[in-house]
Write a structure and sequence with these properties.
Shape of chain A: globular
Strand order of the largest sheet of chain B: 3-5-1-12-9-10-11
Oligomer: heterodimer
Largest interface: A-B, 20 and 26 residues
CATH architecture of the largest domain in chain B: 2-Layer Sandwich
Number of strands of chain B: 30
Radius of gyration of chain B: 27 Å
CATH architecture of the largest domain in chain A: 2-Layer Sandwich
Shape of chain B: globular
CATH class of the largest domain in chain A: Alpha Beta
Strand order of the largest sheet of chain A: 1-2-7-3-4
Order of helices and strands of chain A: HEEHHHHHHEEHEEEEEEEHHH
Strand content of chain B: 25-35%
Number of domains of chain B: 4
Strand content of chain A: 15-25%
Number of domains of chain A: 2
CATH class of the largest domain in chain B: Alpha Beta
Helix content of chain B: 25-40%
Structural class of chain A: alpha+beta
């Protein structure tokens, strides 16, 4: 809406999805969590099943904007808008989510990692619509953490980290996923930070290594809210705090 | 002068009579008004910061259906009218007055170039995109260094981007510096920010072709002055203009000053011959309404080794933007005149140079100049105390002006000479009470402590707030034939609860029931002359005028009653509903055949000085640079409190605004003079949940000797010391690193960088 209000975009046609049925369900089964495109942030907040079905999602969505926006903003809208600092795209990428896109020739499935092409840029075609996003099943014992820092509660994050890993019988991190928002032109996973953690016991030493790796591998933008070097350092802080939460 | 002796309304926490209306959505704001046959205006504004205006081609815009006119500078007569200065109208500043529409040069992004009149604001906005503006760009001057480098000058006839210098003097500064044990020299910056009231500006103007009379809805703050400016610019008699005040969503010094739109909308109505409505949007507000606070300052403090401050010396540079607007000098002047604040500093030589730059013109914003100068002074005191190895608390106590020194003259300022003196106060008592109520002794164990990853810091500082600007204010009291009282006032309501407060004062002065009083204010038809609401003056000036008028009206009522009841006027008592004498009474209703009217003027040359002390407890997260406010306390003496509820609201609101200016709010320009903070997503305001822990205590210790109420203007105080107090608390939290903030805002990246630089400096030592 701000883009329209500032006359930066003047689309000839706006389609209201309010009356399209079947896009507003949160489905939870053994394969994971499926969010319809019209699911609102307040719907996620109110769904008590998500506290165990996908605690990382539930925690991240608590940081989305303010009360009024959480009552109106939707999963599909956020994914399509593709703000690099937005939580939902960050969770989708971090959690290997799959988006379902519907167009005139039918549906197609796209991995979140390939969907986001840059700031406000996605692979969604002009005649396509996001109908749902699927997050793979969440094992009960999975360790996770989410931390973001914004100027005020509800503002876009200057940087944020979503992280999770499973633990093997010897207490070592298995298949860690570490995703960043607000510190590059799109949400992305941090492969070197993940590698720094993989197979290690998550303690202050391995956390510090992962944080340093994360800080080195992001290429954050400078803007009026924060210079790049600040964001780079902030990524390390957020990794430290997200992983400390995960390992608590 | 007599007021009700007991059960008085003055001093009682009466709920605002305005609130029922406002909270139920029944306020009437200017955009709620519509006139029959009305058209809408939208302004074409300069996209360039600096350049020569070559042409404006409106052909395509005029062809758009629904567009009625595009008004350019050439449509405004042989000479484009300019906005005069309301305060400090120095003749040497005339070259810097803003034209109502740019005609030869553009000097800031957002400067009005033309007015589009259309059936709707939407059509007018569409038309804007069809106007071709041709501007030959000139180098943009965006800060002090580019102003001095002068790749271009804004006003070629003046020849420099340094417009004028204010000088504040007291005693012999050079001698004080020569005898000082310590001379501390530092540089400070305060960022450009502005009053961001909730409801942007707007007008509905209607020119009556038959009677050649103009009605303007949307007046605020200084309706009489603006009527004079408008009538002069439109070349019509003042009496042909009626300015009508409607509800407004906040002012804070910015709303109600005369802007180009104050003329352009009425002028458009006369040109087109139909009522015209204009509503400012937020982006326009950010780039068009007065900016404020943009200063740099090199300052020296002379101190004796026991901590006595002997002198202040220095030069501030105030970036006032592209033009001198109505009150554009007040803030820069105050920086020089009020840097000494509540402290006894006998030797002062402080100057402010006003610089013109290609940014939005500036004006007053709550606590103008005082917020800036208090940041500098309170930081300097802590820096000096640290250098001397003495306690900052003790140093402040040592230097506060003592009760016995009152009235205490401050530095005099020139040009547009003015002298002023602190009127009364027990500064030490308030200072100690603030420490006590804050729990300074108990909390001081936290100073510099690292707890759960955050460094904690405390600070305390004192301030003064000037109020009650003259020259005068009018009040007219009317006893209606039904026995009710109507109060007509020259003050304006800008959200400060004026109606409630004036009703309280009138109720006590007349010994009338609260419910029988109606207050009408701010519109030019109510009283002969009015001076409005600025400089925390309404309560003192308007309230005192009510007291004077009430004495007159009571005398008239006694005369009427005396003839009706057959007794001497001196025997008549007024008890709110009836007039009573020995053995006889008569209701006020029907006492006279027609309304009884008394008008009075309160004249005042002397300012009031409310004063106070504030203390803060913060913690700093070194990983993010985030500063959290854990406790904030303000203790203030206002002489006489009219309404503790509204005053409390003013204090808390002022502090929240001060925290906004300390942490968040920043109007950022790039090197081309483009404003980068064009929405409230980028210009960050404090919200209700950001600073929940603010406490305020208000005292009535020392009434002002300068008005019959004994009240001191107190609408701005809270905001004044916040920047300095928070910056000192941050420095104290990070004292192990010797972090010294010299610039606002204390945004997380700035605090983080201070910490990082200090850590690196420590490592390389």
């Amino acid at each position: 809406m701000p883009i329209l209000a500032f006359r930066l975009a003047a689309p000839e046609m706006l389609v209201d999805l309010k009356y399209v049925e079947g896009l507003d369900r949160i489905a939870i089964d053994k394969d994971g969590v499926t969010l319809g495109a019209k699911v609102r942030w307040c719907d996620i907040e109110a769904d008590e099943r998500l506290a165990t079905a996908h605690p990382l999602l539930a925690e991240a969505i608590r940081h989305v904007a303010h009360y009024q926006i959480r009552n109106r903003g939707t999963v599909g809208g956020s994914l399509a808008h593709a703000d690099p600092a937005a939580e939902m795209p960050g969770i989708a990428v971090t959690c290997d989510a799959v988006l379902t896109l519907a167009g005139p020739t039918g549906e197609r499935q796209v991995a979140a990692a390939g969907f986001f092409e840059g700031a406000l840029q996605t692979s969604l075609a002009a005649d396509e619509l996001i109908t749902q996003v699927h997050l793979p099943a969440w094992p009960a014992a999975r360790r996770w953490g989410f931390r973001e820092f914004a100027r005020r509660r509800g503002d876009f994050a200057l940087a944020g980290i979503a992280a999770f890993y499973d633990v093997d019988p010897r207490g070592r991190a298995v298949d860690p996923h570490i995703g960043v928002i607000g510190a590059s032109d799109r949400p992305r996973r941090l492969a070197r930070a993940e590698a720094a953690l993989s197979g290690k016991v998550v303690d202050s030493a391995s956390i510090a290594e992962a944080a340093a790796a994360a800080s080195a591998e992001v290429d954050p933008p400078s803007d009026i809210h924060a210079p790049a070097d600040y964001r780079r350092a902030l990524v390390a802080t957020m990794v430290e705090r997200a992983l400390a939460h995960a390992a608590r | 002068m007599s007021v009700r002796p007991a059960n008085s309304f003055i001093g009682s926490p009466i709920e605002r009579v305005e609130d029922l209306r406002f909270l139920r959505g029944r306020g009437t704001y200017v955009s709620d008004l519509n006139r029959p046959n009305q058209l809408h205006a939208v302004l074409l504004r300069s996209p360039e910061a600096h350049g020569r205006l070559r042409g404006i081609d409106c052909t395509r815009a005029l062809a758009l259906p629904g567009v009625h006119a595009v008004i350019k500078a050439s449509d405004l007569g042989a000479r484009v009218p300019h906005i005069p200065l309301r305060l400090q109208p120095l003749p040497q500043l005339e070259p810097f007055h803003q034209p109502m529409l740019a005609f030869d040069k553009v000097r800031y992004v957002g400067e009005p170039l033309a007015v589009v009149i259309a059936d709707s604001a939407g059509i007018a906005e569409d038309a804007l995109e069809l106007i071709d503006v041709s501007i030959d760009p000139l180098p943009a001057i965006t800060d002090k260094s580019s102003a001095d480098a002068a790749a271009a000058v804004l006003f070629e006839s003046h020849g420099s981007n340094r417009a004028m210098v204010w000088t504040a003097t007291r005693g012999d500064a050079d001698a004080a510096f020569a005898s000082a044990d310590l001379v501390l020299k530092e540089s400070f910056r305060v960022q450009r920010h502005a009053a961001m009231f909730m409801e942007p500006r707007g007008f509905v103007a209607e020119w009556d072709v038959e009677s050649e009379r103009l009605t303007v809805w949307g007046a605020a703050k200084v309706a009489w002055t603006n009527r004079r400016i408008l009538a002069t610019a439109m070349e019509i008699p003042e009496t042909s203009v009626e300015m009508i005040e409607v509800d407004v969503g906040g002012g804070f010094g910015s709303r109600g000053e005369f802007y180009p739109e104050d003329y352009l909308i009425p002028a458009a109505s006369r040109i087109v011959g139909r009522p015209i409505k204009w509503t400012e949007d937020r982006r326009e507000h950010l780039m068009c309404a007065n900016h404020a606070r943009d200063i740099e300052c090199d300052v020296e403090m002379a101190v004796a080794k026991d901590g006595r401050i002997l002198g202040l010396r220095g030069m501030a540079y105030a970036d006032i933007g592209a033009y001198f607007r109505t009150n554009g000098s007040v803030g820069p002047r105050n920086v020089a005149q009020f840097m000494s604040g509540p402290y006894k500093i006998e030797n002062i030589h402080l100057q402010t140079t006003q610089l013109t730059t290609n940014k939005t013109p500036s004006g007053t914003y709550r606590g103008p100049g005082r917020f800036e100068t208090d940041f500098i002074r309170e930081r300097m005191i802590d820096l000096a105390a640290k250098k001397l190895g003495i306690d900052g608390v003790a140093m402040r106590r040592l230097n506060l002006v003592a009760d016995a020194d009152m009235p205490y003259p401050l530095a005099s300022i020139t040009p547009y000479d003015s002298s002023t003196e602190l009127d009364s106060g027990d500064y030490h008592h308030v200072f100690d009470l603030c420490l006590e109520k804050f729990g300074w002794n108990e909390k001081s164990a936290l100073q510099g402590k690292l707890i759960d990853g955050r460094y904690h810091g405390l600070s305390v500082g004192s301030f003064i707030e000037g109020g009650a600007a003259g020259p005068k204010e009018d009040a007219r009291l009317v006893l209606e034939t039904d026995g009710s009282l109507t109060v007509y006032l020259g003050s304006s309501a800008v959200g400060q609860g004026l109606q409630t407060i004036m009703t309280q004062i009138a109720a006590d002065a007349m010994e009338f029931p609260f419910e029988r009083i109606r207050v009408l204010h701010g519109s030019t038809s109510h009283v002969t002359e009015g001076f409005g609401s600025y400089h925390s003056r309404s309560t003192v000036m308007g309230g005192s005028a009510i007291l004077l008028a009430a004495d007159k009206l009571k005398a008239m009522i006694r005369e009427s009653a005396a003839s009706k009841l057959g007794c001497a006027a001196s025997e008549v008592q007024i008890d709110g509903e009836t007039v009573v004498t020995k053995g006889a009474s008569h209701p006020l209703a029907g006492l006279a055949d027609k309304p009884l009217e008394a008008e009075a003027t309160f004249f005042n040359k002397k300012y009031t000085y409310a004063y106070g002390t504030q203390a803060a407890h913060v913690s700093v997260d070194p990983g993010t640079g985030h500063v959290q406010v854990h406790d904030y306390l303000s203790v203030e003496d206002v002489g006489r409190m009219i309404n503790p509820l509204t005053l409390h609201g003013q204090a808390i609101g002022g502090i929240v605004q001060g925290l906004g200016g300390t942490f968040l709010e920043h109007l950022i320009y790039d090197e081309h003079g483009q404003l980068l903070t064009g929405s409230l997503a980028d210009y960050l305001m404090p919200t209700a949940s950001d600073f929940p822990v603010i406490r305020s205590i208000t005292l009535e210790l020392k009434p002002s000797p300068n008005n019959p109420l004994g009240a001191k203007g107190a609408g701005e105080g809270g905001i004044i010391p916040v920047g300095g107090i928070i910056a000192n608390a941050v420095a104290n939290a990070l004292s192990h690193l010797d972090v010294q903030p010299m610039e606002l805002p204390l945004s997380p990246p700035r605090v983080w960088r201070l910490i990082r630089d200090a850590q690196e400096a420590k490592r390389s030592m």
